[in-house]
C-alpha cells in the first residue's frame, strides 16, 4: 500500500460521500483527481472504484439515482445518465 493508493482510496470515499449528498459535480471532481493520481503514480485503478465510475463523463454512479443496473447474458450492464454503458461479467 503506497501513499498514492491511500489517496485513491480516500478520494473514492469522498466521491461516494459527495454523491450521497447529491453533489455530483464535487463527486466528479474527486473521481478525476483520483484518476490523475493513479496515472501519475502508475497505480492500478481499484476495480471497485473503476466500476462505480462512468468511463465517459467521470460521474460517480449510484444505481437508482444516476445509473441503471441490468443483468444481461451473464453480464452486469451499467448505464449512466449520459448514455454511456459499461459491462462486466459476474
Ligand atoms: Zn456518464
UniProtKB/TrEMBL annotation:
Binding note for cofactor: Binds 1 zinc ion per subunit.
Cofactors: Zn(2+)
Organism of derivation: Natronoarchaeum philippinense
Protein encoded by which gene: rnp4
Subunit structure: Consists of a catalytic RNA component and at least 4-5 protein subunits.
Example GO BP: tRNA 5'-leader removal
Function: Part of ribonuclease P, a protein complex that generates mature tRNA molecules by cleaving their 5'-ends.
Coiled coil: none
InterPro entries xrefs: RNP4 (IPR016432), Rpr2/Snm1/Rpp21 (IPR007175)
UniProt protein name: Ribonuclease P protein component 4
EC category: hydrolase
Positions bound to Zn(2+): 54, 57, 80, 82
Family: Belongs to the eukaryotic/archaeal RNase P protein component 4 family.
Enzyme Commission number: 3.1.26.5
Gene Ontology molecular functions: ribonuclease P activity; zinc ion binding
Cellular component annotations (GO), alphabetically ordered: cytoplasm; ribonuclease P complex
Membrane-spanning parts: none
Catalysed reactions, as listed in the record: Endonucleolytic cleavage of RNA, removing 5'-extranucleotides from tRNA precursor
Subcellular localization(s) per the UniProt record: Cytoplasm
Matches recorded under Pfam families: Rpr2
Keywords per UniProt: Cytoplasm, Endonuclease, Hydrolase, Metal-binding, Nuclease, tRNA processing, Zinc
Amino acid at each position: 500500500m503506497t501513499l498514492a493508493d491511500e489517496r485513491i482510496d480516500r478520494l473514492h470515499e469522498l466521491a461516494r460521500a459527495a454523491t450521497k449528498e447529491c453533489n455530483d459535480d464535487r463527486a466528479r471532481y474527486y473521481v478525476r483527481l483520483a484518476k490523475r493520481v493513479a496515472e501519475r503514480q502508475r497505480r492500478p485503478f481499484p476495480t471497485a472504484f473503476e466500476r462505480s465510475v462512468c468511463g465517459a463523463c467521470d460521474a460517480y454512479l449510484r444505481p437508482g439515482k444516476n445509473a441503471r443496473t441490468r443483468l444481461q447474458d451473464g453480464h452486469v450492464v451499467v448505464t449512466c445518465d449520459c448514455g454511456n454503458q459499461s459491462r462486466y461479467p459476474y
